[in-house]
Amino acid sequence: MTSASRATTATPVRSVAALRSGFERDGWVVVPALLSADECVAVVDADAGRQWPVVSDALRPWIFDARWLATLEGLGAGGRAFREQLVTKAPHAETRVPWHQDAAYLDAAPAFTTIFVALEAIDERNGCLRMQPGSHRRGLIEHRPCGYVLEAVDAPSDEGVSVTLAPGDAVVFGSSLLHQSLGNHTATRRLAWMLQFRDADA
Asked: pTM for this structure?
């Protein structure tokens, strides 16, 4: 698949820009149809067999696809890629990722933005992300170890706003936003691709 054919499916920048006020208010926003269903399959295929964090030649064009920067620019966020990873929840996995801010893992780093792309349908049954709108305005809060992950000390008592995504949809959120995910209660995996970006001059 050529870069030209990928570009034809891009969400128009003007459409993304219309979402900017919600992104600034809530700290996250869903951008629909950033990838087509066929492109989701192509990303999975490009990632197959890799030894993370080594980036294969097949995956590299996807990491630097122009749509990511167009999306970030439309939302007024930064645009220099520094990390990406395929993220999964296994079938029938009760694994819960507790309330946390991504910034807690890199507390010495500048703020960054995550584009979390659904490569398969993601909903409450298979462990979708759950957000606390507006929590990014609290700044970095204290965290404590919780198994192999971190958990916010002053965590919300509710389960948050569920973010359901169709294949190719993305949720974009800042590194100070509180979010969590619960278990996968289905017989199939939950599969997404996470790309993270810092300000270009950071």
From this structure: 0.91
CATH number, domain at 166? 2.60.120.620
Strand-pair category, 112-118 with 143-146: unpaired
Cβ atoms of residues 126 and 188 within 8 Å: yes
Give the per-residue pLDDT at 14.
59
The answer to whether residues 127 and 183 touch, using CB atoms and an 8 Å cutoff, is yes
- Tell me the pLDDT tens digit for each residue of 32-53: 999 999 999 999 999 998 888 8
How far is 61 from 29, CA to CA, in rounded Å? Answer: 25
For residue range 122-144, list pLDDT tens digits in order: 999 999 999 999 999 999 999 99
Name residues whose C-beta falls within 8 Å of residue 86's C-beta, 6 or more positions apart in sequence.
44, 47, 52, 119, 191, 192, 193, 194
- Torsion of Cα atoms, 53 then 56 then 60 then 63, to 10°: -40
- Burial category of 80 from C-beta neighbours within 10 Å (exposed 0-12, middle 13-18, buried 19 and up): middle
3-state secondary structure of 128: coil
Domain total for the chain? 1
- Other residues' Cβ atoms within 10 Å of the Cβ of residue 68: 23
Q: Are 34 and 170 in contact (CB under 8 A)?
A: yes
Q: Which domain holds residue 105?
A: 3-198
| pLDDT, position 49 | 86
What 8-state DSSP symbol labels residue 126?
G
